[in-house]
Design goal:
Layout: H1 9-17, E1 23-27, E2 38-41, H2 51-61, E3 64-70, H3 73-76, H4 78-87, E4 92-96, H5 98-104, E5 110-113, E6 123-127
Parallel strand pairs: 1-5, 2-5, 3-4
Antiparallel strand pairs: 1-6, 3-6
């Protein structure tokens, strides 16, 4: 049994198998998950677990070099936009249209579905290297 880090075996396995520039998506409950992309469904009920809780847990266990978000988050969900900008202030944050964001999810190794039900509470984390 693991003592530290992410205990969810599916998330832990995806992160352990990552290479440089691989993608993982942390998604709200409504984001469509592309056919063929691994879905790790953590949603228990409305708001649980939250987008922020899951981002915080994954960020602690992953080397992240870039974050991608939908540009619509600025207007549609300023709380989460501000959170992401502050959390990843030292990383490149790329904004794309929500439609382009959904296309990028097709390249992800996995999508983690949260219980979040606020608009545009989604991000793509691109893996970096620790050396």
């Amino acid at each position: 049994m693991k003592r530290y880090g992410i205990l969810n075996s599916h998330i832990s396995k995806v992160l352990a198998d990552f290479g440089h520039t691989d993608y993982i998506v942390i998604a709200d409950a409504g984001l469509p998950i592309p056919e063929g992309v691994k879905k790790i469904d953590l949603a228990v009920k409305t708001g649980m677990p939250s987008f922020i809780d899951v981002v915080n847990a994954v960020e602690e266990d992953m080397v992240i070099e870039k974050v991608m978000i939908a540009s619509e988050i600025e207007e549609g969900n300023p709380k989460h936009a501000d959170y992401l900008k502050e959390k990843f202030a030292d990383k490149e944050i790329e904004q794309v249209s929500h439609e382009e964001f959904k296309q990028l999810t097709k390249q992800a190794k996995a999508v983690i579905r949260t219980g979040e039900i606020t608009p545009y509470a989604n991000c793509i984390l691109q893996s970096g290297v620790f050396f």
